[in-house]
Amino acid sequence: MGPLLEYILFGVLTSANLALGLYFSFAKRSKKAGTDEMFLASRSLGSFPLAMSVLASMMSALGVVGFVAHYYYYGFYFNWAFLSQIVVLPMVMNVMVPLLYRQRVTSIFEPPSL
């Protein structure tokens, strides 16, 4: 891919994200949005968009480059760690997430209400 095509692709993707953000910003202006609406989406977000949001928050460019360097240097031994997710992921989905949702926890750093 040539440099001109890369700049065009970058411009198109950036413009699309900007247009999408502006559309949803101005489309919601009809009603007054409080902090619950802006920060938590009124707790009406589905599980897939929520998971994608968490994934985007947890990943960084440095992490992506770091994984590539790790695979290059050590090989694919890191993939064995993903096998534990087969056991842990259903437990987190069915036990931890509903528990935290019922307690209305907004962050893992929030102190528990006893």
UniProtKB/TrEMBL annotation:
Its main location: membrane. GO terms for biological process: sodium ion transport. Gene3D superfamilies: Sodium/glucose cotransporter (1.20.1730.10). InterPro entries: Na/Glc_symporter_sf, Na/solute_symporter, Sodium:Solute_Symporter_SSF. The keyword Protein biosynthesis does not apply. PROSITE patterns: NA_SOLUT_SYMP_3. GO terms for molecular function: transmembrane transporter activity. This is Sodium-dependent multivitamin transporter, putative.
